[in-house]
Amino acid sequence: MTSKQSNFLSILSKGKEEDILVLYEEVFPKVLHFITTNNGHISDAEDVFQKALLQIIVRYRKEPFTIKASFENYFFTVCRNLWRRELNSSKLKTHHLETIENISNHDDSAFAMVEQERYELFHEKLALLSENCKNILELFFKKIPYSTIMQKFQYNSENVVRQRIFKCKKRLVELIKKDARYNDLKDI
Question: What is the domain range of residue 105?
Answer without folding.
Answer: 1-127
